[in-house]
Amino acid sequence: METIQFLLDGFVVALQPMNLFLVIVGCAVGLFIGAMPGLGSVNGVAILLPVTFIVPPTSAIIFLAAIYYGAMYGGAISSIMLGIPGASTAVATTFDGRPLALKGMADKALVAAAVASFAGGTISILLFTAFAPPLAHVALAFGSAEEFALMMLAFGTFIGLGGDDIPKTLFSICIGLVMSAVGLDIMSGQPRLIFGDIPGFFHGINFLVLAIGIYGIGEILWTIESSQGEVSVSQAVVSVRRILDALKELLKSANTIVMGSFLGFFVGLLPAAGATPGSIMAYGFAKTMSKNPESYGKGNINGVVAPESANNAASTGSMLPMLTLGIPGSPTTAILLGGMVIWGLEPGPRLFVDQTEFVWGLIASLYMANFFSIVLNIAFIPIFVWVLKLSFTILAPIIFVLCVVGGYAPTQDMHDVWLMLLFGVVGYLMRKLDYPMAPMVLAIVLGPLAESSMRQSLLQSHGSVWVFFERPISGGIMVLALLLFLMPAIKVGKKLIVARRTGNAGK
Amino acid sequence: MRRAELLMAIAMAIFSAYLMWMSAKLPIGWVPGRGPGGGSFPFWLSFAMLICTVWIIVRWFRRTTPQSRSSEPFFDSRSLTLVLLVIGALVTMVGSIYFIGVYGALPLFFVFYMRFLGRHSWAKTMTLALAAPVITFFFFEILLHITLPKGATETLFYPLYDIFM
After folding, report:
1. Each residue of B47-75: pLDDT tens digit?
2. Under an 8 A CB cutoff, do A405 and B118 touch?
3. Contact A178 B74 (CB under 8 A)
């Protein structure tokens, strides 16, 4: 009952004219960003975060969350119309969305994607509303040991479930953490890692500089290189009648949508997992559960609804640990979390006690963002199709300029702009060699907290690392994190054993 | 690709060692009464970075990763030219901000990018090249009160400050 009261208060906040306006603008911007090949929610949120300094924190996060949401809807548009995923979260949507478009059923696929996104969003927000307050309540008892354990879990997820090259993932985590340590040491006040007394490093490396560098500059360089050559845009015939027909047919896919929503939400909850693995897993799951799996990849509508419901559900799910525990559930929420620090809020369970307006305003705005996204999405399908034809040589300079000005704005230091360019170029080169970038961004956001929680815990325990294992919650999380870290080694071990057995059988 | 993989790993190994050396300027061990020293956190993480790069290099020799097996060039010549042009333009833009300010650098960047890389019409190019600084000015300087660097053009803005601030 208390929750409902809080939620109603949240709606009062979210329905204020300015916030309502920002939700609508945010959804529209998010839809565009999601629809542009190469740009996803994380790029939009990173590039536009400096712009939000103009409004109070509650309005700022409502705007950014709406972009996050809109981008999840928008990603499907270019997956279906171009066959190029509009965002990494929509990769799985191309598998069946593109074949449908080539068969002349693009409108059907687009409507299915929008409806599935809406259902995924709605189910996950309801779950979010139910789970968030109790989880935050439990988390209030967390000390520095639990905080550190949770962060280990987040990094463990990258190693165990990330699927990228292990040493490169580890390297990415470590370099992110080291970069977060640049500047003045909080405990002793001494400068460290200042690269030969360059004054710009004394205030540390702002996470935004890294995020804009990688997700702005680096991403565009990547897109410039990979999008050479012409792409063909499918035609979509849109009429009210065809939309209604498509809706009727979608009733058959209801099971898949519900499955995708739940799966997406729980995958999103995992620290660092996010919407991309969520949507791919949902696709795989729908295919294995299906009666005729061979129809997948050839234009099965279930292959569109499963990943689309899952990516929206996961984006909501990933906000749950961000708000309640202060641990982001995806790269995008990592940037939102960093934003909270800039806005002067302290992330973590105290938010639910001290900043009820902020928390519940955000939750209520998610309901609205979901609603406006589906309305804008279906109403503006023709406009999005036009946007897809927009030349990248117009979009790229606009984004570059936004990056440069946005990189300058938070600290008003040209040093940061140069650093951002450097991160962009080096990050782009590393990405070409399959170094994952998301762990680095997550690490620089979590770094300061990881260091202080580790040092505090060790100080209290007089240097014994068992402090992380003695308390039940922190111990449990630590064991889970270690298992994730060891997962690749376990897999290799299993393979060896199996290989030996079959080898013996062969003799 | 194979050579790039090795070069990147070596560069990062050297960088890790440099970070370790810098962290070691602060105490990296246990400081009695104050817990782990200020340099310990970055030092041991840089050490972990170094281990990772060694691991990557070992895998390069054993040809475990796809990159270390690939004989494709890291860049084909066409994309290399394009990417270098773009990076060059970016560096020139940021560098020129010191002299001609943001409002001089932005239009030039747009003209270069849209007209010479994108081959758009002059009309389109100029619309964006002129609109971008105006929008930037109103958004950042007037709404956000963030003064962007103007270099030599600073004096030209005095009348505008008088009107809007």
Report:
1. 999 999 999 999 998 888 888 888 888 88
2. no
3. no
